[in-house]
Amino acid sequence: MKEDALSECLKNESNQETTQFSELSALELVTLINSADMTVANAVKKELPAIAKAVERITERLQKGGRIFYVGAGTSGRLAVLDSAECPPTFGVSPALVQAIIAGGHDAMLKAVENIEDSQEAAIEELQRRHVSDKDVVIGIAASGRTPFTVAALQYGKKLKALTVSITTRGKSMMSEIADLSIAPDVGAEVLTGSTRMKSGTAQKMILGMLSTSVMTKLGKVHKNLMVDVVASNEKLQRRAEGIVSEVCGISHETARTLLQMVNYHPRKAILMYELHLSVEKVDQITQQYPYRSLQQQLALFN
């Protein structure tokens, strides 16, 4: 039965429209790839209700102390690592809040470790090592929806009563049947048969970006369209932080800079300090006590 599922998966990868791919000119190659890429957004668009439902359910778990665990192999795992790594600097959250588990570990980020994707035990061991519980969210990512490593992670998460979400890119799959929530656009066969780093990878990147950005916004990590919890770790981001505080408070960049210097360049804290006339110690207390309140809610609490 496993062979039948795999054979069907491989059959679906064949793209009869690009059998002359290797004979095209450079311009024809990139034009064809570009045309194929244009179809991805529409495929993802059809899944927006499912993505929105996932945002709501994931937010509920995180508000109660849960964490997100992305799980994937190959390209799917690398994209998971990319999205999870961007959450702390963009939204000022702990690296523990959104974690990525890639088959093969850190080594698989820089070189292919393809054989590990068949190991069900490795996925479960990694989830156990991170003490996944019923508070958490396990998000399995796989183009085909049948990768053993990722399937096992979803099954284990389901057993623990964690919220499970599957992200696949060739429509409904084995993973869709296992997970509590399924996001399953069908991007069609790749122009380069079986190379899921292309359209499937683009779709996964889009969906992960939607999920993490929307969840963090619902958790209060965004004010209007501003990253009020951005980690200003370089000069460019410090200037951005100054612009955020200046815009929200209606003050000069110079005044914003002075405030930010008092709170280690944390925009939210600088805004709270200015608007509520509070000390550094008090705004530290507010942000620690109410981590998942929006800036507007925090201002209303003490105004």
From TrEMBL:
Subunit structure: Homodimer.
CDD domains assigned to the protein according to its UniProt record, in alphabetical order: SIS_Etherase
Pathway this chain belongs to: Amino-sugar metabolism; 1,6-anhydro-N-acetylmuramate degradation; Cell wall biogenesis; peptidoglycan recycling; Amino-sugar metabolism; N-acetylmuramate degradation
Gene Ontology terms, MF aspect: carbohydrate derivative binding; carbon-oxygen lyase activity; ether hydrolase activity
Protein's UniProt keywords contain Lyase: yes
GO biological process: 1,6-anhydro-N-acetyl-beta-muramic acid catabolic process; amino sugar catabolic process; N-acetylmuramic acid catabolic process; peptidoglycan turnover
Domain SIS: 58-221
EC number of the protein: 4.2.1.126
Keyword vocabulary terms for this entry: Carbohydrate metabolism, Lyase
Comment field (misc): A lyase-type mechanism (elimination/hydration) is suggested for the cleavage of the lactyl ether bond of MurNAc 6-phosphate, with the formation of an alpha,beta-unsaturated aldehyde intermediate with (E)-stereochemistry, followed by the syn addition of water to give product.
The name this protein goes by in its record: N-acetylmuramic acid 6-phosphate etherase
Catalytic activity: N-acetyl-D-muramate 6-phosphate + H2O = N-acetyl-D-glucosamine 6-phosphate + (R)-lactate
Family statement: Belongs to the GCKR-like family. MurNAc-6-P etherase subfamily.
Native organism: Proteus columbae
InterPro entries (UniProt xref): Etherase_MurQ, Glucokinase_regulatory_CS, MURQ/GCKR, SIS_dom, SIS_dom_sf
Active site, renumbered: 86 (proton donor), 117
KW rRNA-binding (keyword) present: no
Gene3D superfamilies: 1.10.8.1080, Glucose-6-phosphate isomerase like protein, domain 1
Induction, per UniProt: Induced by MurNAc 6-phosphate that releases the repressor MurR from the DNA. Repressed by MurR in the absence of MurNAc 6-phosphate.
Function: Specifically catalyzes the cleavage of the D-lactyl ether substituent of MurNAc 6-phosphate, producing GlcNAc 6-phosphate and D-lactate. Together with AnmK, is also required for the utilization of anhydro-N-acetylmuramic acid (anhMurNAc) either imported from the medium or derived from its own cell wall murein, and thus plays a role in cell wall recycling.
